[in-house]
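Please, structure for the following, as tokens.
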Amino acid sequence: MKLILASTSAYRRALLDRLGLPFEAIAPEVDETPMPDETPEALVSRLSRAKSAAVAAAASDALVIGSDQLAVVEGEILGKPGTEARARAQLARLSGREVTFLTGLCVTNTVDGSERFELVTTPVTFRNLSEHQIADYVAREQPLDCAGAFKSEGLGIALFERLGGDDPNALIGLPLIALCTLLAQAGMPVLGGGSD
């Protein structure tokens, strides 16, 4: 079977590369607009499943990986800032607070139509950050395309006081521990067959 990543994210591609499996990346055509009164958990679940399904519909003999991530602080969803000013504003809002990152992960088997899904929750407590620290971080790292305005795989780790969860890769956008489990369940174990 082929392995397809339903994403154009350079971060997700780099993470999936770590597993050493050949794959191709295809952009999913999915409207990411939240539904009225949709909870963050429901939104991230729906979008990760929709991304996987959109690419799976045009693929054959493949496992398709879809993933989506949201940052939630005090019930508010934080998206990708897009500009330096919005990145600084997001980080000022996160300063000294606990933020929950929700990462939806879906693996669709195009042969039998089965879908495997997991929602990974990662709590992050941010340090109390000064305006100068925030400006310095944004200027140096340019986290404009990252939910929450940081890159945990880089200098962003300096923003944190505490990191929870089971898989730090989930913060980057693709929870590899859960993915290894879902791939094995779908018949594509990362470390080969057998459980010896």
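Helices lie at 10-17, 40-56, 84-94, 131-141, 169-172, 176-185. The first helix runs from residue 10 to 17.
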